[in-house]
Design brief:
Blueprint lengths: L1 H30 L6 H19 L6 H18 L2 H21 L9 H20 L9 H20 L1 H19 L1 H6 L10 H23 L1 H17 L3 H13 L1 H6 L10 H13 L6 H6 L4 H22 L24 H43 L3 E2 L4 E2 L2 H8 L1 H7 L6 H13 L2 H11 L5 H10 L6 H14 L4 H29 L1
Antiparallel strand pairs: 1-2
Helix pairs in contact: 1-2, 2-7, 4-5, 4-6, 5-18, 5-23, 6-7, 6-15, 6-23, 7-15, 9-16, 10-11, 11-13, 11-15, 13-15, 13-23, 15-21, 15-23, 17-19, 18-19, 18-23, 19-20, 19-21, 21-23, 22-23
């Protein structure tokens, strides 16, 4: 009897969800709302309906016949070809995709094929640097590198060069922005004056707390694990990485660098050096949904932020595996694992309350981190200004004193040029890259908002992509602390690969900006 009730309950929930999705789709067609375009609604609804149905259809009906057809017509014949010829074909296809994207699309206003060629050259240089710095070139799995670059390019093409892709990501970005904005009227309850004067405390931090509480409730309901498993399965199959790596990579844009590692806690102590390097890189190369509201409040276009976060998932994997290839046999090879300990809640409301408490700690950490980093930056800049005035060293372009941003603008000048940044924006964008690395992306985006009126549209968009990641010195300490707590037996390995992973995460976001530069 209990088993029968359970079966009815499990069948009832998916059917109800399908009915709701189908009803929303029909209503969108009839109403033709500007906030829910028909094409976007159709893609989302039918994707999830087919995904839900696939969970309950026996493998022999769909999965097995499709797998056999794929194996017979494509997989088996392709792998019968000589290995060198196979990879030659793959490289030719990737090169055709890159060059076709850069030079086969019409130019927007105030752009040129020369600037796109600059970005193509930058991508080649980034890959060459990674290859030359690889710790064991003979172990590189070129399949992972080629597919990772290809996926990054395809996502960029889909979003930036198709109306359906742009509308879909724009809709998702606006939906995320509207969702996070619901914390604004709630926070206004605690303020008697205009909250715009205290926008970071009154709007950004409450949105972070609200998002984490909501994510905890979704985790309790099983929704978040389901989404992460599906995303992770895609990366597991396409990029040939371990299940733990796939889960962390898929989870990083949703729940952030620390929490994503907690999903594979039982396996951290037995992870290989390459897996740990990959987990760290994924955390550095992406952002968490909880901080999306902060960047939007800085005036950054939501669609580019969401696109950058998704593009940086395969970028982080490809970059990490080119720098630190797998030399051992991961325990989770070929299987998806999602687990988290010590997060039990009696019901959804209890989980929401637990999430709010955890969100408060995260928001407090962000507040303290931003405050202390800014104070340190201002202190160092004051010291540099004093030294600069003594030796008559000033920022002649902006008519300012010697500063960290001025030094970084020259150190990262070549990186900005390789990304395809226009000449007049090179010093500004390179300074932002240094600010992001030394301070954090909050400070860099705030600075970008201030100088946006003086930048070209192309330079601004590339900067938005390049800054969209957690690769900074503060996050380095957070990542080492979290992973060392989860896997105390691997502390020495974590410490040895951490700086390499930070550089790879930083380079992954630059590579994402470079690919975007090919299409702008």
């Amino acid at each position: 009897m209990a088993r029968h009730v359970l079966q009815v309950k499990e069948t009832y929930h998916p059917c109800l969800l399908i009915i709701i999705l189908f009803g929303w789709w029909i209503a969108t067609i009839l109403v033709k709302s500007a906030r829910s375009p028909v094409v976007v609604a159709s893609i989302i609804v039918w994707f999830f309906i087919l995904l839900i149905i696939a969970q309950y259809v026996p493998n022999r009906v769909i999965t097995k016949p499709v797998g056999e057809a794929w194996s017979a017509s494509i997989s088996t014949p392709f792998f019968k070809i000589n290995r060198r010829i196979r990879f030659g074909i793959a490289w030719v296809l990737l090169l055709a995709l890159v060059l076709g994207s850069a030079f086969g699309n019409p130019l927007p206003a105030n752009s040129s094929y020369g600037s796109r060629a600059q970005s193509v050259f930058g991508l080649l240089v980034f890959q060459s640097v990674l290859y030359l710095s690889c710790n064991n070139k003979s172990l590189i799995q070129w399949h992972t590198i080629i597919v990772g670059l290809g996926l990054q390019q395809i996502i960029a093409l889909f979003v930036l060069k198709t109306s359906a892709g742009f509308d879909l990501f724009n809709w998702v970005a606006k939906l995320a922005g509207d969702f996070l904005a619901q914390a604004y009227p709630a926070s206004a309850f605690f303020w008697t004056g205009p909250v715009e004067q205290f926008w970071f405390i009154a709007t950004t931090l409450p949105a972070i707390i609200f998002f984490i509480a909501f994510a905890e409730m979704c985790y309790h309901a099983g929704i978040l694990q389901w989404v992460i498993r599906k995303f992770g399965w895609v990366f597991l199959k396409t990029l040939d990485i371990s299940g733990a790596e796939a889960v962390v990579a898929a989870a990083s844009p949703f729940i952030g660098q620390g929490e994503s590692a907690c999903l594979v806690k039982p396996y951290v102590n037995s992870m290989t050096s390459s897996e740990i390097h990959q987990m760290l890189t994924s955390g550095f190369a992406t952002i968490a949904g909880s901080v999306l509201a902060a960047y939007i409040n800085f005036g950054m276009p939501p669609v580019y932020l969401v696109t950058s976060a998704i593009m940086s998932i395969p970028a982080a994997i490809a970059v990490s595996k080119l720098r630190w290839p797998e030399a051992d046999s991961p325990m989770t090879k070929g299987k998806i694992v999602v687990t988290r300990e010590g997060q039990d809640a009696a019901n959804a409301l209890h989980a929401f309350s637990n999430g709010a408490y955890f969100g408060l700690r995260v928001a407090g950490l962000i507040f303290c981190n931003v405050l202390t980093i800014l104070a340190l930056v201002y202190t160092v800049n004051g010291l540099l200004a004093y030294i600069g005035s003594s030796f008559n060293i000033t920022d002649t372009a902006n008519k300012g004193p010697l500063s960290l941003e001025l030094i970084a603008s020259y150190v990262f000048y070549p990186v900005s040029w390789l990304m395809g940044v226009p000449q007049q924006d090179l010093l500004r964008v390179s300074g932002l890259l240094g600010t992001k690395l030394v301070a954090n992306e909050f400070v860099a985006y705030q600075r970008l908002q201030e100088i946006r009126p003086y930048m070209t549209e192309r330079g601004f968009k590339i900067a938005v992509y390049a800054l969209c990641g957690f690769a900074n010195l503060g996050s380095l300490g957070i990542q080492i602390g979290v992973l060392a707590a989860l896997g105390p037996k691997r502390k020495s390995v974590i410490a040895s690969v951490a700086f390499s992973a930070l550089a790879c995460g930083f380079l992954a976001t630059c590579q994402t900006a470079t690919i975007a530069g090919m299409l702008l």
